[in-house]
Write a sequence for this structure.
C-alpha cells in the first residue's frame, strides 16, 4: 500500500492531538491539585467523590441542627430556671396566706400578680425568632389575650376558669377602651367562644387586633380564678434530626408546662376579692407543687436531650473527618508527581511536534498548529 502525504499528515495530526490531550490533562491536574477533574478521568473515582461530598454535606446539616438544638436547650434551661424561682416565691406567699397571715394583703396580691405576669412573659420566650413553648406553632405568642377582626370576621376568644362560673369578657381596642362586653357561662378548664365582631352598640368593629380581660364569679357570687391568656400552640414536640435515623424531641407544650401554675395564681388572686384567700391558698398548694414538679421534669428531660446531642455531635464530627479524608485521598493528586508528569508531557509534546515536522519536512510543526 502506498503511503501518501495526506495519510502521513492525518496520522501526525492524530498523534499530536492525543499528546495534546495528555498534556492538557497533566496541566489540569497540576493547576487544580486534583487527580479527577471530570467523570471521564476516572468514572469509579468520580462516583465515590460524589458520594463522599453528599456525606459531608449531610454531616454539615446535622452539625447545624445540633447547634440549633443546643441553642434551644440552653434557652429552655435558662427560662425554666427562672420559672422555678418564680414558683418558689409564689409557693412561699401562698403558704403564708394558707396559714392565715394576711397582714400585708395588698402587697401579697401585688406580688402574686407580678409573678403571674412574669410567668406569662417567660412562657412567651422566643429563641432565634421562634417561640419556645408553642409546640409546632413557633410564629405566634404561646399565650395570648388577643383576638382579631379581619374582613368583618372575628377570631374566637379563649380563656381558662378554675371552676364552673359566669364569665365577663371585656374586649378593648388599641387605646384600652372597652368596645364590647360579653357575658357567658363557662366551665372549669379551657373555654372558647365566638363573637360577632360588633361593639356594644351593634356597629361592626374595624379590622385589627383587640385584647380582652376575663373575670368570673360562681353561683354564690364568689370570684373565680380566670386567665385570659389562652394557649395558642399545640401539644406536639419539636423534632430535630441530629444524625442518620436519629432525632431528638424537645417538648415545647407550653400549656402542659405552665398552665397549672398560672391557674393556681389566678385562683389566689381572685380570692382577694371575696376575702377567701386562706381557703383558696390552701386549695392551690398541691397545684403549685405539681407545677414545680412539672418544671423539674422538663429540666431533667432537657438535660437528657443535651447528653444525647453531645454524643451525636462527637459521632457526626468523627464521620465528617473520615469522609473528608477519604475524599481527599481519591480527589487530590500528588503535587510533586503532577509537576513531574506535566514536565514529561510538555517534553513529549515538544518531541512529537519536532518529529512530525521532520517526517513531513516542515521547519517546525508548532509553527503551523
Amino acid at each position: 500500500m502506498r503511503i501518501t502525504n495526506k495519510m502521513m499528515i492525518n496520522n501526525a495530526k492524530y498523534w499530536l492531538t492525543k499528546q495534546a490531550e495528555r498534556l492538557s490533562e497533566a496541566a489540569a491536574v497540576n493547576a487544580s491539585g486534583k487527580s479527577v477533574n471530570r467523570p471521564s478521568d476516572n468514572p469509579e473515582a468520580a462516583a465515590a467523590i460524589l458520594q463522599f461530598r453528599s456525606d459531608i454535606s449531610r454531616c454539615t446539616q446535622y452539625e447545624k441542627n445540633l447547634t440549633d438544638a443546643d441553642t434551644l436547650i440552653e434557652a429552655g434551661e435558662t427560662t425554666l430556671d427562672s420559672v422555678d424561682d418564680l414558683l418558689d416565691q409564689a409557693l412561699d406567699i401562698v403558704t403564708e396566706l394558707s396559714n392565715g397571715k394576711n397582714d400585708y394583703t395588698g402587697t401579697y396580691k401585688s406580688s402574686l400578680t407580678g409573678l403571674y405576669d412574669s410567668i406569662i412573659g417567660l412562657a412567651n420566650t422566643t429563641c432565634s425568632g421562634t417561640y419556645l413553648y408553642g409546640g409546632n406553632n413557633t410564629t405566634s405568642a404561646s399565650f395570648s389575650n388577643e383576638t382579631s377582626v379581619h374582613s368583618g370576621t372575628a377570631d374566637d376568644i379563649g380563656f381558662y376558669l378554675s371552676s364552673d362560673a359566669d364569665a365577663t369578657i371585656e374586649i378593648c381596642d388599641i387605646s384600652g377602651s372597652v368596645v364590647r362586653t360579653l357575658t357567658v357561662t363557662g366551665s372549669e378548664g379551657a373555654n372558647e367562644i365566638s363573637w360577632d365582631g360588633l361593639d356594644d352598640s351593634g356597629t361592626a368593629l374595624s379590622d385589627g387586633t383587640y385584647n380582652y380581660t376575663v373575670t368570673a364569679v360562681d353561683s354564690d357570687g364568689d370570684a373565680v380564678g380566670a386567665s385570659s391568656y389562652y394557649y395558642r400552640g399545640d401539644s406536639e414536640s419539636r423534632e430535630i434530626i441530629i444524625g442518620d435515623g436519629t432525632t431528638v424531641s424537645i417538648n415545647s407544650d407550653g400549656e402542659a408546662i405552665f398552665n397549672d401554675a398560672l391557674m393556681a395564681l389566678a385562683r389566689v388572686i381572685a380570692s382577694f376579692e371575696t376575702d377567701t384567700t386562706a381557703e383558696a391558698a390552701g386549695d392551690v398548694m398541691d397545684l403549685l407543687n405539681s407545677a414545680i414538679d412539672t418544671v423539674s421534669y422538663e429540666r431533667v428531660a432537657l438535660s437528657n436531650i443535651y447528653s444525647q446531642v453531645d454524643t451525636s455531635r462527637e459521632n457526626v464530627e468523627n464521620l465528617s473527618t473520615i469522609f473528608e479524608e477519604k475524599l481527599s485521598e481519591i480527589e487530590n493528586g500528588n503535587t510533586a508527581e503532577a509537576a513531574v508528569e506535566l514536565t514529561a508531557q510538555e517534553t513529549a509534546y515538544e518531541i512529537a511536534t519536532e518529529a512530525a515536522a521532520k517526517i513531513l519536512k516542515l521547519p517546525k510543526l508548532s509553527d503551523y498548529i
